[in-house]
TrEMBL record:
Keywords: Hydrolase
Name this protein carries in UniProt: Phosphohydrolase
InterPro entries documented for this protein: Calcineurin-like_PHP, Metallo-depent_PP-like, Pantetheine_PDE, Phosphoesterase_putative
Keyword Isomerase set for record: no
A GO MF label: hydrolase activity
SUPFAM superfamilies with a match to the protein in the record: Metallo-dependent phosphatases
Lineage: Bacteria, Bacillati, Bacillota, Bacilli, Lactobacillales
Length: 271
């Protein structure tokens, strides 16, 4: 049995946390709980260099345990290009990569994911791309194609990885940042901004792909709503986001970052 720890949306800079303080505490807790794999489903910080530094320093301190992350939209805001995100930037970066969990029959498949406006199909005819550039943080992220095209490029790559896992007889834990199921989207009658933002949260196509391939376990992030783990179409979905705590927004249930991180980390036992 290998213990795998799941978390996402640490947002170190928004939460005013320093890596030199955070890393020793995280390492000590993960070692105490004998975690063999530590997975972070994106939005570690607003700078890819800092996000990568966290993962690499955690990996060095936790050896022989494995640390892996995918990039969320916030990780993509600075210090990295679209083309670089599609390469093997570091051993800890799992986008379009896999990790076989030693001593088990499990394979972790990683993909950053993206969105295609499918969760805002209740708003026909809207120009989501223009709205995004005007009002959403992702408007500053450079890419060579539309948002639906960006997601469409990833789906066959994910299918290829799932085919390889099936052919190898592997059970799959899939890690992505963006929301894969409509059940985790909030629709409202009194918040037009949020209904537009739903377009940028993920894609129902991702959930359909995971269901078709009978993926057993899915870790995602991006929404900070602290969902209880839920089984849908045979797959268990985990959203272990830490989220924001600042003068404008408080999504935490604990009083400090260390306590909130411990509260949000979920450990699964993989046999």
């Amino acid at each position: 049995m290998v213990k795998v720890a799941l978390v996402s949306d640490l947002h170190f800079d928004v939460n005013h946390q320093e890596l030199d303080t955070v890393i020793p505490a995280h390492v000590a807790w993960l070692k105490q709980h004998q975690v063999g794999v530590y997975l972070i489903a994106g939005d570690i910080s607003n700078h890819f260099a800092q996000s990568l530094a966290y993962a690499e320093r955690m990996q060095a301190a936790l050896e022989p345990a494995q640390v892996r992350f995918v990039a969320g939209n916030h990780d993509m805001l600075h210090d990295v290009t679209y083309d670089e995100l599609g390469t093997s930037l570091a051993p800890t970066y799992l986008h379009q990569q896999v990790l076989d969990v030693a001593g088990t029959n499990w394979r972790i498949v990683g993909n950053n994911g993206w969105y295609d406006y499918g969760f805002a199909d209740n708003l026909p005819g809207r120009d989501f791309a223009t709205w995004k550039r005007a009002f959403w943080v992702d408007g500053s992220i450079s890419q060579p194609q539309s948002d639906p095209e960006r997601l469409a490029a990833e789906l066959p790559l994910i299918q290829d990885q799932l085919d390889l896992a099936r052919d190898a007889g592997k059970r799959v834990l899939f890690m992505t940042h963006f929301v894969p199921r409509r059940e985790f989207i909030r629709y409202t009658d009194d918040n037009r901004f949020w209904n537009m933002a739903n377009a940028l949260l993920g894609s129902p196509q991702m959930g359909e792909l995971l269901a078709k391939n009978q993926v057993e376990t899915v870790l995602f992030g991006h929404v900070h709503r602290h969902f209880t783990p839920r089984q849908l179409d045979g797959s268990w979905y985990y959203d272990q986001a830490v989220g924001y705590h600042n003068r404008r927004i408080n999504e935490w249930t604990q009083d400090d970052f260390a306590s909130e991180w411990r509260q949000r980390v979920r450990i699964l036992n993989l046999n």
